[in-house]
Amino acid sequence: MDNMITNPIIPGFAPDPSIIRVGDDYYIATSTFHLNPGICIYHSTDLAHWEMIDHGLKQSEVDLRGTNTPAGIWAPHLSYDVATKKYWLAYSHMLNMEGREFNADNYAISADNIHGPWSKPVYLGSLGFDPSLFHDTDGRHYMTILEWETRDGYRHPGHIVIQEMNLDTGEFIGQEVRVTQGFTTRGCAEAPQIYKHDGAYYLMLASGGTGYAHGVEIGRAQNIFGPYEPNPTLEPIITSAPEHIFSLGNPDAGHFEAYNPHSRLQKSGHGSLVETSDGEWYIAHLMSRPLPGTMLNPLGRETSLQKMRWNPDGWLEMADGSNLAKDRTPGLAGIDYSQPIDHSFSADFSQPELDVHWMTPYREQDVTWVTQQNGQLQIKGENSFFSRMNPAMVTVAATAFDFTMETEVAFQPTHYSQSAGMLMYYDAQNWLYARLYFSESLQSIALGILQAKNGERIEYVHDRVAIPNGQVKLRFATENGHTSIGYAVADHWQLLASTIDTSYLSDEGVGGSEGEIGGFTGLLCGLGAVDAYRHTSKATFNYFKMINNEE
Questions:
Q1: Catalytic annotation on 16?
Q2: Is 501 an active-site residue?
Q3: Is the pTM of this model over 0.85?
Q4: d(CA 368, CA 354)
Q5: Which of 16, 130, 252, 508 is catalytic?
Q6: Catalytic residue among 164, 190, 317, 427
Q7: At residue 217, does pLDDT exceed 80?
Q8: What is the Cα Rg of the chain in Å?
Q9: What is the distance between the alpha carbons of residues 187 and 178, in angstroms, rounded to a whole number?
Q10: What does residue 178 show for φ and ψ, rounded to 5 degrees?
């Protein structure tokens, strides 16, 4: 019997996890940034096996078209009010990141069921981002948030503030109170969350920027508005870089100097606390896994779990007494976790609704451009994949460094600007696309390759082949950041292109400034179509599968 949970518990793009327990059920909500539907919701009963079951924003609550990536929906906070038996989701809609203004509108929605229907959004203000709600035992409710600092000469990124709320009316009570700018020297205190234990209030923060210096830190107070005393170690309670770091003057992500060569998990931070029905404690937190020999993390920020304990002085710490995030953590008592978990994905399009795992950048998924019937997925082509308005694609998160994905597409283009096929996608500036299109020089439907790399359009003019009947199977084989593309007509597989470097499709490889990262999401894989001619052509796909080849 193996009683250890293996991390990550949710591999691939699953950042900023917020975890709760309701009865015997555990739920996690994660950020989705510029992807629709917004806010992924996962369910588990044993803390190791997690299934995506729904989304929190799926009824046109936000318009993400034109979003300044990686803006969009940030840091959802999931909570449960035991008095009213309501689920609450607080979130930021980041609208602008230019000029370091970071303009975000913050909202909260509620529901009687984790699947909704969710209420109309309650506006929580725009003074910063990463809001969370705390439901106190006396029936009062509080919002805590990062007040984003923009003034020269002031310490950035700002203060953590707390304010009482009337959740029935959506009105604030009294003034917001600035309580701290962080509990360690790592700076960049954000993502505040309040917990209550043995009558004391605990304020948990993310710190160090969401890069290699990231961590989870904590303070304690007898009054919810403080004063908060820091954890006496003056260090994070979870991190991948446990050495002392001073970065108060450099609050952003990146911090490549904090890379820990002895840890498989990197960037561990932004945590959320949960108590089991047996009184055990865990923190779900984000982390990343770089490609071997690099500091590139194509799978983005993933979700892991660490078992915690309260020490005799009433401070929360990891169960092993350290603060270094581990590959494996003790699981729930009496449960055998020895069975490996397969995170492969497949879709045969036999159901009337799209699978919950499919996400689309910027635009909503609706029947005007994507439908599923009679065992086929049909996509009507629109903008090029450089567009942040109406790209026509459905994608799922890659979950392994070594994976194979495959589809069969049928398409009858009549113009060179009409195409359809399979792609690896990070954002509008970075992707790899194998597609059927009409070649005037070949006077035939052809299979070719397009790539976007930091905004540059690259066409593989020497790697193309005629596909006269417009039907072909496609296969991408990716291993440690390199991808080969194959195709088959009548099940005879041939190589179209080999060992294309796709490692740049990662948070660090997409154009961040010196010493910083360029994104906060991760590698997505899926199906799409383009029609820059008349927006009328349609492609059909018979299946899609993404096989995780790692043990």
A1: yes
A2: no
A3: yes
A4: 14
A5: 16
A6: 190
A7: yes
A8: 23
A9: 16
A10: -80, 125
